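User: Sequence recovery, please. Input:
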């Protein structure tokens, strides 16, 4: 049975400060993000993972560095990079940019998947590259895979793996180092029994009540 563990990268200073990253900002993790990655490793270190697949952006492989350092083979796949947010990248949200984001994001949910935030990538375009990545998974030799991606890209990835259209990705939520676990079904879709699981993190961090 082929099983994937999909995780969003840990926190960066851009996340903390509300600055848009997207695919054009290659930020590193901050201390919190590195701690989140270590806690993730401590929870799943005994799972006999056979390969680690990350995006081409360093915040993903920094998150799963403990797994890679333990000797698990690592590959980078640009197909699971974060969505491009165009002119919004590297900037803090303004009332105008936040309004644009909301309108186009809501439009995706109504099937308007060619909308582009900041002139960046459309939901359709992201979905096409994510599907290329998904299509190669059943043909891999490994049965236990760890995948580290990004918030919006991961929502799209899991949505498509469930056999749904990309316009339903708004239904999913994501958190730094939230874990999704899916198993490949005979019909080619994936069944997820963990969804944005953060049980490896302190309760105070999950609830926001420090």
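Assistant: Recovered sequence (210 residues):
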């Amino acid at each position: 049975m082929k099983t994937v563990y999909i995780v969003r990268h840990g926190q960066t200073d851009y996340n903390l400060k509300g600055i848009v990253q997207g695919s054009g900002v290659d930020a590193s993790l901050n201390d919190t993000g590195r701690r989140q990655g270590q806690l993730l490793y401590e929870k799943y270190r005994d799972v006999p993972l056979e390969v680690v697949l990350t995006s081409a952006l360093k915040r993903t492989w920094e998150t799963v560095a403990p797994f890679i350092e333990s000797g698990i083979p690592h590959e980078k796949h640009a197909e699971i990079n974060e969505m491009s947010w165009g002119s919004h990248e590297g900037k803090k949200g303004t009332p105008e940019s936040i309004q644009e984001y909301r309108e186009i994001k809501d439009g995706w949910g109504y099937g308007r998947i060619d909308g582009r935030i900041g002139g960046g990538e459309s939901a359709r375009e992201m979905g096409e590259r994510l599907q290329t990545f998904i299509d190669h998974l059943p043909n891999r030799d490994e049965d236990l895979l760890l995948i580290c991606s990004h918030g919006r890209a991961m929502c799209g990835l899991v949505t498509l793996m469930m056999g749904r259209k990309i316009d339903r990705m708004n239904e999913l939520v994501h958190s730094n180092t939230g874990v999704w676990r899916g198993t490949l079904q005979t019909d080619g879709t994936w069944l997820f029994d963990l969804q944005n699981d953060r049980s490896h993190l302190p309760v105070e961090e999950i609830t926001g009540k420090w």
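The longest strand covers residues 190-197.
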